Amino acid sequence: MEEYISDKELMKIQVEVLFTQDENGCLQRINESTGATGPAPRFFFGYTNEDSICRFRHDLPDNVVAHLKEVAAAEPMSMNSQKIPRNRRQFEDILQSHAPIERVWVGPAYRFPEHITPPTNTVQLSRENVGLLKGDFVEMVPELNNSHPYLGIIEDSQAVSICRSVRLSLRAHEAGVDTLVNYRKRGYAASVVAAWALAVRALNRIPLYSTSWDNVASQGVAQRLGLVQYGVDYHVT
After folding, report:
1. Are 86 and 130 members of one domain?
2. What percent of the chain has pLDDT over 90?
3. Residue 50 belongs to what domain range?
4. Which residue of 126, 152, 184, 225 is most buried, as measured by CB atoms within 10 A?
5. Do the domain assignments include residue 93?
């Protein structure tokens, strides 16, 4: 059983999973387990019902950081009824004045419940059974070196749904799940994510799951698994 961790602390842990940081806590790069990284977002704002945290990319000017902090301090905390920051427009106006906005992400972050029902239809994927990654999953083969735990559901002699650790730290792993188009809406994604979470806990790490508000299917997986939303991630590149 995992020790209890507050929502605010869990948000801090998630930032460590998602992005590399320097000694001052400034964001540097996306923390991809495969090593194929790009620059971190310029601004990260994670909020829970308890509190919020801000992180800034290392190359963001001090005056921009100060302005963002002012707006963040005025942001009301009400995660349950607040899908996007109420001051989102102000955040983005400040960042747009610094440089053109390339990407905005906002969505729920989840913790797993204490009890996870072990699925019976999953297998560990590795170099020994790499041949199970066929079709659209062939491009995932290089991940097998770095994204453990790596679980799959097998049907028709191939992996049809997979979940692996796409970002990881010493304390937690973040899930990445994919299902082949012809095998969706069968409950496979929920099963393989549950198996992955149990495998992560076996490593004495915290399994984390997050998605965007636009990804209704991914939110459905979280609902089927009984995941508990602890916060909202908002970041701008």
Report:
1. no
2. 89
3. 7-110
4. 152
5. yes
